[in-house]
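User: Structure tokens for both sequences below?

Assistant:
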Amino acid sequence: MERLIDGERRLRREYSADFKALVLRQTRERGASVSGVALSHGLHPNMVHRWLREQRLLREKALPGTPAFVPLPVQSVVSQERVALPVTPAPAPVSGICEAIHIEVQRHGTTVTMDWPVTAAAQCAQALRELLQ
């Protein structure tokens, strides 16, 4: 099962491929834990985890390469016509001076510009929500 590399002192253990396969097969059994299998064979669980990683890497190398990104053709439809939105008219300003909300939205190649008085901010928000849906 194991062979000591240096005969004088225990430097590093080397395990046969059959022994590794046996241990890894036991870890795949239902209800088995890697730690339990490792300890039953006198191994540290980290060693068995390393063997599992190495086995997974070998399997991944054997599989044909799958690209991480596959480009898909997207048909772009851009309309240059103006779109009329149903808008609730804003109330007239009380004073002669009016601060305005100016919004410019660009979507799908179309630009929508809106100017709203600050006093009608709620209606502006509603129109913007409908536009961005």
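Moving on to the next sequence.
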Amino acid sequence: MESVDSRRFADLISAALREEFGGNRSSVKTIARLIDANERSVKNWFDGTNGPNGEFLVRLCRHSDRVLEVVLLQSGHAELIKVRKLALVREGLHQMLEILDEIEFSNAD
């Protein structure tokens, strides 16, 4: 696993934020509101000027699957991404089965 310096970390976070939220002014405002951060700081993250500190990084992970993936990959825990995706797929399948059951039972009437 390669080490990550602060410049590379900021670039990875920037790419993740842009991929998930876009890179416009409203994206910055949305993130700032979601995680209760200063808009200037969030703009710096989007621009790759610097990365978020620990507290804001945790808050970002709550709202951004891409940021969470970056953190897991860079900390050497790629296997947790697979586990998380599998859990999401199972949840989706469960919801689909519930919908199919509802359709089946509503057609039985």
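User: Anything stand out in the second?

Assistant: The chain has a mean pLDDT of 91.
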